[in-house]
Amino acid sequence: MYHAFGVVMVVAATILVEEVLLGLALECDSSKLEPCVPFFEDGGPLPSPDSPCCENIQGQHGCFCGYLKDPKSCKYLVTPRVKDVGTACGVETPDLSSCSEYQGTCTQPSV
């Protein structure tokens, strides 16, 4: 009796953990970078932490390497200001050399 109860509890706990992990899965959406485009360009001011740019990228920090595969996003993420924008927003931006997706340049889509 106690053994069966223990098995049921382990199964229930496993299912609960899987549901929590699925709920925490990162949803990468490169369109969330759009409010940051003016800040990635040289010479402009940096965003404030409560700006739409910062609010959007705070949940996207784990996506930056993947965004390098998209030429529209890549061209902004390779700018020198991306680190400054990340710092202003409290988001750690990866070193591009650590991203396996980055080949030293942004690739153009094949036609």
UniProtKB/TrEMBL annotation:
<protein>
    <submittedName>
        <fullName>Uncharacterized protein</fullName>
    </submittedName>
</protein>
